[in-house]
Specification:
Length: 752
């Protein structure tokens, strides 16, 4: 019988690049798995975290039964790994997020030294290499020993089960396609398959010949129906020889059908089921990607609380545990490979390999409805051969799994006429109106224009959002201020926009959780992308979390916003309450409550008194309370402070901007100012676009004002554009802003 032994404990980590012979003599650091060496430096900013090739050593005793085989399964090694047993190289793997196995049998002894080198050094052939998240190095998931008889369900096929059970619907009837892959098949063997319902009762028992593929009819199965009823069946496959069980594998499946409509969105089991949810990275604060099973369960509970019904697992294959949790809890999953930002010169083979592993290892999960081919792959512009390469990957996905569609997440600057949007079965865009580009009010018109221009394309909204540090607050929030207040404002407007557009096949907030992005130095929290609804340590739910909970969740609640804005200087204020209940009452300092009826967001006008104020919101049995203090001066503690004279300082203390009549100034709209060649040249000279140019992740200067970008930013004032860019472009400071305004003041506006 198969025996699985976890070996997560008692590893020796050698943080040195050495030959194995020398590494095995080093006294390293005793660690347990999962582990990464970038849990701290990968989250502190500066884009200088350690990337290299280091060693994990584990000594173990093992008595291998004669005739059996011993395999090693590594659930994730980021990004390249080589496996040695007793000094012999026995396998290697490229790709940091999928499982792989190697056969240890020929070299295993009673006492063994297992050595795994893991390397996250830059590469021109292993994805990802350019993206807005940290590429943590290490053994970031579990490691297992698997002992099997010489005849067993295959362990060498992309680390899958060696057995497939794929439900499918044909002519209104349900079937399951069963197939197996057996190593060292013997003539007297068979595969006994048992299918049990969720209550544990066996409903089908089938005997197959090893390697046989057969479709069996499933009479009126209980459907897996998303959040309402995520019903699962248990598959058990036993490899049997003369009634003796040699090997067994088991997993769960679900029967569900789904379809897409270009006007009505997503349908689950024949009924409209709008997909509205969040995207998720796998890392935690101070842990990096080396998270525990308990951490993953916590993530699931928070996603359930907010009421999402889809999760985009970005931007790589995630832990099998999280896919299992999605199956069990009825969440729909978009999962993808880490082909992201910029195509690698020698990366096609690795791209194909990672997609193959993703599909082979995850095909059984009913929660998964699509395979993502790439994300923002045209960040530096469309490259020759990209369409052809995506067609190759698209065909590969359909060959491996004909039951699911493919998709891509496009960067906002990709032309809506691009051939790339027609390659996958489904398309989606990452649109940051109101943050990187344009205004939030432009999101709806952009989506409508795409839908009108491309009526035959299934359109989704794969990313949208704004960075927010919960330390920062404002009663007049604006793009680029990193306030919790602005994040709430943007998401409330985005939610209303999405609600009015049923043709969107999916939408996902970027992001459910703040995550490590070591290249970021902004928003008072270097090393993190702060677009999460929840902080990276999972300890704090931002106000935007609750506006989604109000729209999506059936759990009744009342939530007062700006609870961390304790010391206030404004006597006359608008207090906002978020709730999914039909009315809210608000009382200040025990006075007679004010009452409002409405939906989701309830604003109340109040006058604070000097000193302490108790604010209480109530709806029936549900209530929330905060305490704030009215002070003369809070010393700007709730404003994002720039560290190098950024333009945010200028906007906090500026005098009136000079704007002579008939001349341009930074108060004019970008689309008007940039028609002037002189103004454009001055802009490029004063604010050269660096590696993180401020208009997304890494745009080039010659793309700054193309037609598509201008459509998105043209309605902004130059002042607002510069403010928005300030957090990511070190060249924008008080001096350069004044200088640019002075230049604009010399350029006459065209006569009407």
């Amino acid at each position: 019988m198969r025996k699985i032994t976890p070996i997560d404990q008692n590893w020796n980590f050698i943080k040195k690049t050495l030959p194995l012979e020398e590494a095995s003599k080093e006294k390293g650091i005793e660690i347990n798995l999962p582990h990464t060496w970038n849990n701290k430096d990968g989250q502190d900013g500066g884009n200088n975290y350690v990337r290299g090739k280091f060693w994990y050593l584990h000594s173990f005793a093992y008595h291998l039964k004669e005739g059996n085989e011993l395999w090693l399964e590594v659930e994730a090694a980021s990004q390249k790994a080589e496996v040695y047993i007793n000094g012999e190289l026995v396998g290697s793997h490229e790709g940091g997020y999928s499982a792989f196995r190697v056969n240890l049998t020929p070299f295993v002894k009673d006492e063994n030294l297992l050595a795994i080198s893991v390397d996250n050094s830059p590469s021109d052939s292993i994805y990802p290499q350019s993206a807005d998240f940290t590429f943590y190095g290490g053994l970031t998931r579990h490691v297992l020993l698997i002992e099997v008889p010489s005849s067993h369900f295959a362990l060498d096929h992309f680390a899958d089960f060696g057995f497939k059970a794929v439900p499918f619907l044909k002519d209104g009837e349900w079937y399951i396609e069963l197939s197996s892959s057996i190593t060292n098949i013997r003539n007297d063997e068979k595969v006994n398959v048992t299918i049990a319902n969720q209550e544990g009762n066996a409903i089908y028992e089938i005997a197959l010949a090893p390697g046989e593929k057969r479709n069996i009819h499933a009479s009126s199965p209980h459907l897996w129906n998303g959040l309402e009823d995520p019903y699962l069946y248990q598959i058990q496959a036993d490899l049997v020889q003369k009634e003796k069980t040699l090997d067994s594998v088991s997993f769960k499946i679900g029967f569900r059908s789904f379809s897409f409509d270009k006007e009505k969105g997503f349908f689950l089991n024949g009924k409209a089921y709008p997909l509205r949810g969040v995207a998720k990275h796998q890392d935690f604060k101070d842990k990096g990607s080396a998270v525990s099973d308990a951490d993953l369960r916590l993530d699931m509970s928070l996603i359930q609380e907010v009421g999402a019904n889809i999760v985009r697992l970005s931007h790589y294959q995630h832990s099998q545990l999280f896919y299992d949790l999605a199956d069990e809890n009825g969440l729909i999953i978009w999962t993808e490979v880490p082909c992201i930002s910029i195509p690698l010169e020698n990366g096609l083979a690795n791209w194909e390999s990672q997609l193959t592993e993703l599909i082979c290892q995850c095909q059984e999960h009913p929660s998964i409805i699509c395979w993502g081919l790439s994300n923002e792959i045209t960040l530096s512009g469309e490259k020759k051969g990209q369409v052809k390469d995506h067609q190759i990957l698209n065909d590969l996905a359909h060959q491996l799994d004909p039951t699911r569609p493919t998709t891509m997440a496009h960067i906002s600057s990709l032309s809506i006429d691009s051939s790339l949007i027609k390659v996958p079965d489904l398309s989606a865009y990452n649109l940051y109106f109101g943050w990187y580009v344009g205004m939030t009010s432009q999101l709806g018109p952009w989506l409508d224009n795409f839908h009108k221009t491309n009526p035959d394309i299934y359109l989704g909204l794969s990313e949208y959002g704004a960075d927010a540090n919960p330390l920062y607050h404002s009663l007049t929030p604006q793009a680029g201020d990193y306030t919790e207040s602005y994040e709430l404002k943007l998401h409330y407007e985005a939610l209303k926009t999405i609600q009015e557009r049923p043709y969107l096949w999916m939408t996902s907030v970027w992001n459910m959780f703040d995550f490590g992005a070591d290249s970021r130095m902004e928003g008072g929290n270097p090393g993190f992308n702060q677009k999460g609804l929840v902080t990276a340590d999972r300890k704090l739910k931002k106000d935007a979390f609750y506006i989604y909970k109000a729209f999506w969740s059936k759990e009744p609640f009342v939530h007062l916003t700006e609870r961390r804005y304790v010391e206030r200087v404004e006597k006359e204020e608008t207090i906002q309450v978020i709730s999914n209940l039909p009315f809210v009452e608000l009382s200040l300092n025990g006075e007679k409550p004010l009452r409002q009826e409405g939906k989701y967001l309830f604003p109340f006008q109040v006058s604070l008194k000097e000193g302490k104020n108790i604010i209480k919101a109530t709806s029936g049995i549900y209530s929330d309370q905060i305490e704030v203090n009215l002070v003369i001066d809070n010393q700007g503690k709730y404003i994002c402070k720039a560290t190098n004279d950024l333009v945010s300082n200028w906007f906090e203390k500026k005098d009136d901007v000079s704007a002579p009549e008939g001349m341009f100034s930074i108060l004019d709209q970008v689309k008007d100012v940039m028609k002037s060649k002189e103004a454009l040249m001055a802009f490029m000279k004063l604010f050269p676009m660096g590696s993180n140019g401020g208009m997304g992740d890494k745009p080039k200067s010659n793309q700054m004002f193309d037609d598509n970008i201008m459509t998105m930013i043209g309605g902004k004032t130059v002042e607002n554009l510069l403010y928005m860019m300030a957090g990511q472009n070190k060249n924008i400071n008080e001096k350069t802003v004044k200088q640019f305004n002075q230049i604009l003041n010399t350029i006459p506006k065209p006569k009407k």
